[in-house]
Amino acid sequence: MSDPTPGDGGAVAAPDTEGRVLTGFRPTGPLHIGHWFGNVTNMVRLQADHEAFYFIADWHMLTTHYDRTEELPGNVRSLVLDLLAAGVDPQSVTLYRQSDVKEVAELTLLLGMITPLGWLERVPTYKERLRDMAERDIANLGLLGYPLLQTVDITIVKGELVPVGEDQVAHLELSREVVRRFNRLYGEVLVEPRALLSRAPLVPGSDGRKMSKSLDNTIDVRDDEDAIRTKVRSFITDPKKVRRGDPGRPEICPIFALHELFSHDILEWTEENCRSGALGCVDCKTNLADRIVTYYAPFRERRDELDREPHLAEDVLAEGAAKVHPVVDETMKAVRSAMSLG
Amino acid sequence: MSDPTPGDGGAVAAPDTEGRVLTGFRPTGPLHIGHWFGNVTNMVRLQADHEAFYFIADWHMLTTHYDRTEELPGNVRSLVLDLLAAGVDPQSVTLYRQSDVKEVAELTLLLGMITPLGWLERVPTYKERLRDMAERDIANLGLLGYPLLQTVDITIVKGELVPVGEDQVAHLELSREVVRRFNRLYGEVLVEPRALLSRAPLVPGSDGRKMSKSLDNTIDVRDDEDAIRTKVRSFITDPKKVRRGDPGRPEICPIFALHELFSHDILEWTEENCRSGALGCVDCKTNLADRIVTYYAPFRERRDELDREPHLAEDVLAEGAAKVHPVVDETMKAVRSAMSLG
Using the beta-carbon criterion (under 8 Å), do B62 and A103 form an inter-chain contact? Predict the structure, then answer.
C-alpha cells in the first residue's frame, strides 16, 4: 500500500495498463505535499479510465502505530474527506476501509500458511523500517507480515494493477510469488497482480530530505496560508547562495524541486534568475508560497464544505463496504473451496 | 491446542481449576490410543464439572499439513463423530470448528501487531517442529504464528483454563504475555488464561517411541479386532527377554506401558510373571490385545451408529457455531472498541 511517503505521482510508465487498479492509503495523519503528488493525484487520474478499488489501510497502520490507535477514527475520517475533496469520486471508484473487510484477516491467515518466512524477511522495506524506527518497539509479527497483508488486500478484490514506486516493487514481487504458490497448491484461484510502475517526483521537505511526517519537515495540504508561508520560509536552500546576487544551483535546492510541482508559469524564469543570482531566495520562496496557497485554495474550500457534513465519511465508507463485499465474497468462496475449508 | 500426540490424560494437578475450559484438536487423521489417553478422556472428564469449549482446529492443521487439505472434510467429520462416540456431549459443551469462527483470523491479525517476533521464535516447539519435519516445507509464517493462533483460540472465547502437557507450557506462557501486553496497551479486555497442568501418561507406539501417526507406530481407536491383534503383536518388547522363561523388565516394555492403561485387572500379575519369566511375550500381548478390543468395543459400536447419520457432524458443528458466536462477538466488540477500530 502507499506509505505516507512520496510514491508514484509521475506518468504511468508500464506498457500493460489494462485492468482493475487497487491501492491503499494508511491513515497515519495529515496529508502532506509528498502524499499529494505521490499518491493522491495518481488516484484521481487512474479513476478516469480504470475500475479502481481504493481503501483506507487502517489495519496496516497498526504495523507501526499500534500504540496510537486513539488517532485512528479521526485520521480515517480526515483521510476520506481529503480524498473526496481532492477529487476521488466514490461513485466511480470503490472506496472502503480495510477493517470493514474482515475476510482480509481470514485470507491473511490462510496465505500465511504457505508463505515462507524467508520471503518476508528478505523484503528490503522490512529491515529498513526496523532500522528507521529503531527507537520504537515494532519488531512484531505484524510488521514482518506487512507484505503478506498487502498481498491479501490486492488479491481479495482481484486487483490486477497496483501503482507502485520503485521502492515497492519487492513487495509486489512477493505478492506475485505467493499467488503463484497458492495457485500451484490449490488450483488457479487468485489473480497475479502487476505493477503499475510510476516515476515518483522527488518531494523534499524543509530539511532537504524526503518529505515525511516523522521528520517533521512537511507542508500539509490543509495548512492555511500563514502556515504555508511560514513553512516555505523555513526550507533550506543552496547553502552557497547566501544573499541575492550569489548564483544558486536549482538542481540541489528543495525550493526549486517544489517549484517544479507548483510553478509551471515561472519555472524557466526561476531557474535562470536563480542561477544568475538575480533572484534572491526570499523572493523565490514568496513566489512558491503564493503558488502553493493558490493551488490548494479550491481543495481547502471543498474540504471545509465536506467537513460540515458530520456523517459523510462514514456514509461513503458504508457504501464502499457494500460495493466491495460481493467481490470479496466471491474470492473467499473460491479460496475456501479450493482449500477444502468449510 | 492438543497436537496428535499424547498430552494430558493424567489426573488434574493444578490447584486452581475453576473456570471456562478451552481445548482444541487438530483433524490430522485417525485417532490413536495416544490421543485417547492424552486428550479425549480428559475432554470427557472435564465436561462434567466445567463450562467447556472444544473445537476442531482445522486452521491449525494447515500449519503443517497445508498441502493435504483434501483430507480435511473427512478428517473433521471423523473427529467429530469420534468425540461424540467417546462421550463428548455437544449439549453440555460448546463443540465447534475453528474456521467457522472467522473472527479468530481477525484477532490473530490484531494481536500479531503487538506480538514480538522474538517471543514466537523462542517457543521451543517451533524449532522442534522445524527439525522434526525438516524433510517437509513448513518454515512458513503460519508455523511461526502457531502459538499466537492458539492464544486467539483461547482468548476469543474468554477461556480461563487450558489443559496442557508439560511440552505446551511455553505456548501458554506466550498467550499470557500477549494478553498482558494487549491489556496494558488498550485496557483490561482479554482474560489471562491459566494452565490446567496434567500429567500425561506415556503412550508408546510399536517401536517404543511416542505413539504418533507420522512414525507409523499407532494403534487407532477405530481399528478392528484383527488390526488391533496384528498391531499389538508387532510391538517391540524387552530385547533381553527372547523367549518364555527369560526374565523381563516391564519398566522398559511398551506393551507393559499399554497394560497400565488397559489391564487394571491383571496388572500386578503381569508385572510379576514378566519379571519371573513365567509369562511369555506372546501370551502377554494376547492379554493386552483382548483388553484393548474389549475396551473399545462399546466405542466402536456407538461410532458405527453415528456413522450412519450422514449429517450429524455438520449439524453438531452448526449448533456449536451458533453457541460460540455470541461469546466471540462480545470479545471482538470489546477488542475493536479498545483499539478504536470500526
Answer: no
